[in-house]
Amino acid sequence: MGSSVTATCPCGQNTEIMIGGGMNNFMTTCYFPCFCGNCNAVVEANLLDRQMTCPHCKTNKIIPYDDPTLAGETGKNVVIRWNVEKQLGRDLILTDGNYRCPQCDQMTLRFMIGYLLWD
Ligand SMILES: [Zn+2]
Ligand SMILES: [Zn+2]
User: Fold this and answer.
1) Considering the domain boundaries, does residue 58 fall inside one?
2) For residue 19, how far is its CA from the centre of ligand 2 (angstroms)?
3) What is the tally of structural domains in the chain?
4) Which is deepest, 31, 53, 57, 74, by most CB within 10 Å?
């Protein structure tokens, strides 16, 4: 079962993103928040897609939010950990630290666990 996170920033960025995959597609689907410099937004992309693209502008220049270039200060707490070691060779982890915001380009974006549950 998947869950969701919200990405918020003082500049007004506020997006809810699904994480992971459902019961039937967890081998091929793993949603995760990504940075799209084209849309200046946090977007939801399937990291297990061979051609990972932004769902809005279709660019492939998106960066998953577990990339070190997007992380500022690492938080003490893990907001979400998604086990895709088999598929991706790494676990996807988001902490409650600061991340680069695609809208204002400051290290002030934060992730919180969302309320949406889906499968
Ligand atoms: Zn985009
Ligand atoms: Zn911002």
Assistant:
1) yes
2) 21
3) 1
4) 31
